[in-house]
Automatic annotation (TrEMBL):
<dbReference type="InterPro" id="IPR036983">
    <property type="entry name" value="AIM24_sf"/>
</dbReference>
<dbReference type="Pfam" id="PF01987">
    <property type="entry name" value="AIM24"/>
</dbReference>
<dbReference type="InterPro" id="IPR016031">
    <property type="entry name" value="Trp_RNA-bd_attenuator-like_dom"/>
</dbReference>
<dbReference type="InterPro" id="IPR002838">
    <property type="entry name" value="AIM24"/>
</dbReference>
<protein>
    <submittedName>
        <fullName>AIM24 family protein</fullName>
    </submittedName>
</protein>
Length: 226
Protein backbone atom coordinates (compact mmCIF):
# COMPACT_ATOMS: atom_id res chain seq x y z
CA UNK A 1 0.00 0.00 0.00
CA UNK A 2 2.85 2.41 0.79
CA UNK A 3 4.21 1.94 -2.71
CA UNK A 4 0.81 2.66 -4.22
CA UNK A 5 0.54 5.96 -2.32
CA UNK A 6 4.17 6.99 -2.74
CA UNK A 7 3.33 9.41 -5.52
CA UNK A 8 1.26 11.52 -3.12
CA UNK A 9 3.89 11.80 -0.39
CA UNK A 10 5.30 15.26 0.54
CA UNK A 11 8.19 16.40 -1.62
CA UNK A 12 11.43 17.91 -0.31
CA UNK A 13 11.19 21.56 0.71
CA UNK A 14 12.63 23.91 -1.90
CA UNK A 15 11.02 27.26 -1.02
CA UNK A 16 9.10 29.08 1.70
CA UNK A 17 5.85 28.50 -0.23
CA UNK A 18 5.18 25.98 -2.98
CA UNK A 19 2.37 23.92 -4.43
CA UNK A 20 1.70 20.32 -3.49
CA UNK A 21 -0.44 19.46 -6.44
CA UNK A 22 -2.53 22.25 -7.92
CA UNK A 23 -4.94 22.72 -5.01
CA UNK A 24 -2.77 22.61 -1.90
CA UNK A 25 -0.17 25.02 -0.52
CA UNK A 26 2.88 23.86 1.43
CA UNK A 27 4.55 26.43 3.69
CA UNK A 28 7.94 25.89 5.36
CA UNK A 29 7.46 27.43 8.81
CA UNK A 30 10.36 28.60 10.99
CA UNK A 31 10.66 30.58 14.21
CA UNK A 32 10.41 34.29 13.49
CA UNK A 33 8.82 33.74 10.08
CA UNK A 34 5.14 34.08 10.93
CA UNK A 35 2.36 33.71 8.42
CA UNK A 36 -1.12 35.14 7.98
CA UNK A 37 -3.56 32.64 6.49
CA UNK A 38 -7.27 32.46 5.82
CA UNK A 39 -9.07 31.15 8.89
CA UNK A 40 -10.03 27.52 8.44
CA UNK A 41 -7.63 26.88 5.57
CA UNK A 42 -5.27 24.54 7.51
CA UNK A 43 -5.68 20.93 6.37
CA UNK A 44 -2.53 19.41 7.93
CA UNK A 45 0.79 20.26 9.54
CA UNK A 46 4.00 18.67 10.76
CA UNK A 47 6.08 19.89 13.68
CA UNK A 48 5.06 22.50 16.26
CA UNK A 49 2.80 25.20 14.85
CA UNK A 50 0.48 27.52 16.77
CA UNK A 51 -2.55 29.41 15.53
CA UNK A 52 -4.11 32.67 16.65
CA UNK A 53 -7.41 33.60 14.94
CA UNK A 54 -8.01 37.28 14.23
CA UNK A 55 -4.94 38.48 16.18
CA UNK A 56 -5.05 41.98 17.76
CA UNK A 57 -2.32 43.28 15.45
CA UNK A 58 -4.58 42.56 12.48
CA UNK A 59 -7.92 43.87 13.74
CA UNK A 60 -7.31 47.57 13.16
CA UNK A 61 -5.77 47.04 9.72
CA UNK A 62 -8.67 44.87 8.66
CA UNK A 63 -11.47 46.89 10.24
CA UNK A 64 -12.77 47.60 6.73
CA UNK A 65 -12.70 43.98 5.60
CA UNK A 66 -15.31 43.33 2.97
CA UNK A 67 -17.63 41.25 5.11
CA UNK A 68 -17.70 43.83 7.89
CA UNK A 69 -17.26 41.01 10.41
CA UNK A 70 -13.56 41.45 11.12
CA UNK A 71 -10.64 39.82 9.35
CA UNK A 72 -11.05 36.14 8.46
CA UNK A 73 -7.32 35.75 9.11
CA UNK A 74 -5.29 33.64 11.51
CA UNK A 75 -1.66 34.08 12.51
CA UNK A 76 0.49 30.96 12.19
CA UNK A 77 3.86 30.61 13.94
CA UNK A 78 6.31 27.85 14.83
CA UNK A 79 8.51 25.29 13.12
CA UNK A 80 7.43 22.64 10.65
CA UNK A 81 5.42 22.21 7.47
CA UNK A 82 1.98 23.73 7.09
CA UNK A 83 -0.53 22.66 4.45
CA UNK A 84 -3.34 25.00 3.41
CA UNK A 85 -6.25 24.67 0.99
CA UNK A 86 -9.54 26.36 0.13
CA UNK A 87 -12.27 23.89 -0.85
CA UNK A 88 -10.26 22.44 -3.74
CA UNK A 89 -9.54 25.76 -5.44
CA UNK A 90 -6.34 26.06 -7.47
CA UNK A 91 -3.48 27.69 -5.55
CA UNK A 92 -1.12 30.20 -7.17
CA UNK A 93 2.13 31.12 -5.38
CA UNK A 94 3.66 34.57 -5.91
CA UNK A 95 7.09 35.72 -4.71
CA UNK A 96 6.98 39.51 -4.41
CA UNK A 97 10.27 41.36 -4.88
CA UNK A 98 9.70 44.88 -3.60
CA UNK A 99 6.43 44.73 -5.47
CA UNK A 100 2.71 44.77 -4.72
CA UNK A 101 -0.49 43.03 -5.72
CA UNK A 102 -4.16 43.84 -5.20
CA UNK A 103 -6.19 40.72 -4.38
CA UNK A 104 -9.88 40.03 -4.03
CA UNK A 105 -10.30 39.24 -0.32
CA UNK A 106 -12.04 35.94 -1.06
CA UNK A 107 -9.02 34.81 -3.12
CA UNK A 108 -6.32 35.63 -0.58
CA UNK A 109 -5.09 32.38 1.01
CA UNK A 110 -1.85 33.26 2.84
CA UNK A 111 1.03 35.74 2.98
CA UNK A 112 4.18 36.43 4.99
CA UNK A 113 3.34 38.36 8.14
CA UNK A 114 6.17 40.87 7.59
CA UNK A 115 4.58 42.13 4.36
CA UNK A 116 2.69 45.42 4.43
CA UNK A 117 -1.00 45.02 3.73
CA UNK A 118 -4.32 46.74 4.04
CA UNK A 119 -7.87 46.94 2.73
CA UNK A 120 -8.21 49.70 0.15
CA UNK A 121 -11.04 51.14 -1.88
CA UNK A 122 -10.82 50.54 -5.62
CA UNK A 123 -10.65 53.96 -7.22
CA UNK A 124 -12.73 54.91 -10.22
CA UNK A 125 -15.67 52.60 -9.53
CA UNK A 126 -17.82 54.42 -6.95
CA UNK A 127 -20.10 56.04 -9.53
CA UNK A 128 -20.92 52.61 -10.95
CA UNK A 129 -21.18 50.56 -7.74
CA UNK A 130 -22.73 53.17 -5.49
CA UNK A 131 -20.77 52.58 -2.29
CA UNK A 132 -17.56 51.48 -4.02
CA UNK A 133 -15.49 48.29 -4.09
CA UNK A 134 -12.71 47.12 -1.76
CA UNK A 135 -9.65 44.91 -2.22
CA UNK A 136 -6.64 43.74 -0.18
CA UNK A 137 -3.29 45.23 -1.24
CA UNK A 138 -0.14 43.32 -0.21
CA UNK A 139 3.30 44.81 -0.81
CA UNK A 140 6.97 44.32 0.00
CA UNK A 141 9.35 41.39 -0.46
CA UNK A 142 7.97 38.00 0.46
CA UNK A 143 5.51 35.26 -0.39
CA UNK A 144 1.80 35.43 -1.18
CA UNK A 145 -0.61 32.62 -2.09
CA UNK A 146 -3.91 33.26 -3.85
CA UNK A 147 -6.68 30.92 -4.99
CA UNK A 148 -8.59 30.54 -8.23
CA UNK A 149 -11.72 28.55 -9.03
CA UNK A 150 -10.02 26.65 -11.83
CA UNK A 151 -6.77 27.32 -13.66
CA UNK A 152 -6.49 31.11 -14.04
CA UNK A 153 -5.26 33.19 -16.95
CA UNK A 154 -2.80 36.04 -16.40
CA UNK A 155 -3.39 38.90 -18.82
CA UNK A 156 -0.50 41.28 -19.53
CA UNK A 157 -2.14 44.68 -19.89
CA UNK A 158 1.04 46.28 -21.16
CA UNK A 159 1.11 44.41 -24.46
CA UNK A 160 -1.14 46.83 -26.29
CA UNK A 161 -2.95 50.15 -26.10
CA UNK A 162 -6.42 48.62 -25.72
CA UNK A 163 -8.04 48.28 -22.32
CA UNK A 164 -8.60 44.87 -20.74
CA UNK A 165 -12.18 44.18 -19.61
CA UNK A 166 -12.97 41.69 -16.85
CA UNK A 167 -16.18 40.43 -15.28
CA UNK A 168 -15.91 41.38 -11.56
CA UNK A 169 -17.11 37.90 -10.54
CA UNK A 170 -14.16 36.33 -12.37
CA UNK A 171 -11.50 38.78 -11.13
CA UNK A 172 -8.82 37.40 -8.77
CA UNK A 173 -6.02 39.98 -8.58
CA UNK A 174 -4.23 42.77 -10.44
CA UNK A 175 -1.24 45.11 -10.33
CA UNK A 176 -2.20 48.10 -8.13
CA UNK A 177 -0.55 50.57 -10.51
CA UNK A 178 -3.09 49.79 -13.24
CA UNK A 179 -5.83 52.31 -13.92
CA UNK A 180 -9.28 50.91 -13.21
CA UNK A 181 -12.67 52.14 -14.30
CA UNK A 182 -16.13 50.68 -14.65
CA UNK A 183 -18.05 50.10 -17.85
CA UNK A 184 -21.73 49.38 -18.32
CA UNK A 185 -23.05 47.63 -21.40
CA UNK A 186 -26.64 46.73 -22.21
CA UNK A 187 -25.82 44.81 -25.39
CA UNK A 188 -23.32 42.43 -23.79
CA UNK A 189 -25.65 41.18 -21.07
CA UNK A 190 -26.09 37.77 -22.70
CA UNK A 191 -22.36 37.36 -23.38
CA UNK A 192 -20.60 38.54 -20.23
CA UNK A 193 -21.66 37.46 -16.76
CA UNK A 194 -24.57 35.29 -15.65
CA UNK A 195 -27.17 37.98 -15.14
CA UNK A 196 -29.71 39.30 -17.59
CA UNK A 197 -30.06 42.84 -18.83
CA UNK A 198 -27.24 45.22 -17.93
CA UNK A 199 -23.65 43.87 -17.87
CA UNK A 200 -20.94 45.47 -15.79
CA UNK A 201 -17.22 45.14 -16.46
CA UNK A 202 -13.99 46.48 -14.98
CA UNK A 203 -11.61 48.08 -17.45
CA UNK A 204 -7.84 47.97 -16.80
CA UNK A 205 -5.15 49.99 -18.58
CA UNK A 206 -1.45 50.66 -18.08
CA UNK A 207 1.53 48.43 -17.33
CA UNK A 208 0.73 45.39 -15.21
CA UNK A 209 -1.15 42.11 -15.00
CA UNK A 210 -4.70 40.96 -14.28
CA UNK A 211 -5.43 37.46 -12.93
CA UNK A 212 -8.78 36.02 -14.04
CA UNK A 213 -10.38 32.75 -12.96
CA UNK A 214 -12.61 30.58 -15.19
CA UNK A 215 -15.54 30.86 -12.79
CA UNK A 216 -18.16 33.45 -11.95
CA UNK A 217 -20.43 31.38 -9.73
CA UNK A 218 -19.53 33.04 -6.43
CA UNK A 219 -21.69 35.89 -5.16
CA UNK A 220 -19.21 37.26 -2.64
CA UNK A 221 -16.50 38.57 -4.96
CA UNK A 222 -15.57 42.21 -4.49
CA UNK A 223 -18.48 42.73 -2.14
CA UNK A 224 -20.04 46.16 -1.99
CA UNK A 225 -19.67 47.62 1.46
CA UNK A 226 -21.54 50.54 2.98
Amino acid sequence: MNQQLAGFAPTPVTARMENHGSTMLKVAMATGQDLFARTGSMVAYEGFIQYEPNPPAVRQIASQWITGEGAPVMKCSGDGLLYLADYGADVVVINLNNDSISVNGTNLLAFDAHLTWGVEKVKGLAKFAGQGLWNVVVQGTGWVAITSRGTPIVVDCGRGEDETYVDPDALVAWSPNLKVKGKRSFKAGSLIGRGSGEAYQMAFSGQGIVVVQPSEDSTDRLRIRN
